[in-house]
UniProtKB/TrEMBL annotation:
InterPro entries assigned to the protein according to its UniProt record, in alphabetical order: AAA+_ATPase (IPR003593), ABC_transp_ATP-bind (IPR050319), ABC_transporter-like_ATP-bd (IPR003439), ABC_transporter-like_CS (IPR017871), Oligopep_ABC_C (IPR013563), P-loop_NTPase (IPR027417)
Assigned keywords, A-Z: ATP-binding, Nucleotide-binding, Transport
Signal sequence, start to end: none
Taxonomic classification: Bacteria, Bacillati, Actinomycetota, Actinomycetes, Micromonosporales
Similarity comment text for this entry: Belongs to the ABC transporter superfamily.
Residue numbers spanned by region Disordered: 325-344
GO MF terms held by the record: ATP binding; ATP hydrolysis activity
Name by which UniProt lists this protein: Peptide/nickel transport system ATP-binding protein
CDD domains linked to this entry: ABC_NikE_OppD_transporters
Domain spans labelled ABC transporter: 9-257
PANTHER family found in the cross-reference section: D,D-DIPEPTIDE TRANSPORT ATP-BINDING PROTEIN DDPF-RELATED, TRANSPORT ATP-BINDING PROTEIN
Native organism: Micromonospora chaiyaphumensis
């Protein structure tokens, strides 16, 4: 990881509300993302984790400007890109890429692999030394695919190989930051570790920064330098990887960790099984949004929203009035395992 301290990505108060209409009348808004603050340094990987519907994809799509933020700001390499228009975004598109969750839907079935990977180069008018074909074949090799398969079509590849094609396409413009939206969750568990390892090697070799989106903490465990845990449109805890996994302070982080099979001791709380559904982002609970499922909730939690603040002046910040203390222990675990969802 780079030693530079200036963040590559600086996000402040990032918000996305989707208006809901009944006929012509506004009927409120889905508060999908509600005021996120975080930085990503060059070469750093930030994991963004939370249950389905908490706003991860919406956040990722705003970061690469596929979605227009409602409010807040996104700075990339010192430039405010929050509302940058298409022309201004073009040079940024090279530095900022996204890998999608579904390796089947994200590749055009009528195009050859060579054409798919070459597309970002062609769209941006880039003619690399040695020509486009040579560059595409280098990229295929880089992601562990046979460069001779240049003329094959997506359906001739397995799910894991298709995700590698998506990764090669994302790398074509030598980006500085990649948003990876659940890049392995559509793959067999046996293939997940291979793709995670590939991303980790690329991250190290190319000094890439990642925002790596996942719905559980097991997947990002061996990949991320820092982790942000989201609940109902908010970050409830953010910190260095080891702090999040060994000294989680937010009850929700503890519950997510509890779903990882080899977390052996959770301290006095023991194993935690979340009950109840995630409330609707149309009308989130007052005060702390987690309070309807939190076993520690008290009156104050309903009236006062907890701020995301460092509890001990360190790097770890937690949005909770009554944070947990103490360390939990866990086994080494495989590189990528899928934890069963906690709250079904
Ligand atoms: N275009 C849209 N219009 C209205 N609501 C939307 C829209 N896109 C997303 N939402 C809502 O915003 C919330 C956050 O959705 P998002 O897809 O960001 O969640 P997620 O964390 O990525 O979930 P998953 O783990 O299922 O992918 C959800 O309640 C979703 O229904
Ligand atoms: S603020 Fe209250 S309800 Fe929210 S996580 Fe902390 S203890 Fe639970
Ligand atoms: Mg999603």
């Amino acid at each position: 990881m780079s030693t530079e301290t200036e963040p590559l990505l600086r996000v402040r108060g990032l918000t996305k509300h989707f208006p809901v209409r009944e006929g012509f009348r506004a009927k409120g808004a889905v508060r999908a993302v509600d005021g996120l603050d975080f930085d990503v340094r060059p070469g750093e990987t930030l994991g963004l984790v939370g249950e389905s519907g908490c706003g991860k994809t919406t956040t990722g799509r705003m970061l690469v400007r596929l979605l227009e933020p409602t409010s807040g700001s996104i700075e990339f390499a010192g430039r405010d890109i929050t509302h940058a228009r298409r022309g201004a975004l073009r040079p940024l598109r090279q530095d900022l890429q996204i890998i999608f969750q579904d390796p089947y839907a994200s590749l055009n079935p009528r195009h050859t692999v060579g054409r798919i990977v070459a597309m970002p180069l062609q769209v941006n008018g880039i003619n690399p030394p040695g020509g486009i074909k040579k560059r595409v074949q280098e990229l295929l090799e880089l992601v562990g695919l046979n460069p001779e398969h240049y003329n094959r079509y997506p359906h001739e590849f397995s799910g894991g190989q298709r995700q590698r094609i998506g990764i090669a396409r994302a790398l074509a413009l030598r980006p500085k930051l990649i948003v990876a939206d659940e890049p392995v969750s559509a793959l067999d568990v046996s293939i997940q570790a291979q793709v995670i390892n590939l991303l980790r090697d690329l991250q190290r070799d190319l000094d890439l920064a990642f925002v790596f989106i996942a719905h559980d903490l097991a997947v990002v465990r061996h990949f991320c330098h820092r982790v942000a845990v989201m609940y109902l449109g908010k970050i409830v805890e953010i910190g260095d990887r080891d702090d999040i996994y060994q000294r989680p302070q937010h009850p929700y982080t503890r519950a997510l960790l509890s779903a990882i099979p080899d977390v052996t001791t959770l301290g006095p709380a023991g194993r935690i099984r979340l009950t109840g559904d995630v409330p609707t982002p149309l009308n989130p609970p007052s005060g702390c949004r987690f309070r309807t499922r939190c076993w520690k909730a008290q009156e104050r939690c309903a009236t006062e929203e907890p701020a995301l603040v460092p509890q001990d002046g360190g790097n770890q910040a937690t949005a909770c009035h009554f944070p947990e203390t103490g360390t939990i222990s866990q086994g080494a675990g495989p590189a990528a395992v899928t934890a069963e969802e906690v709250s079904k």
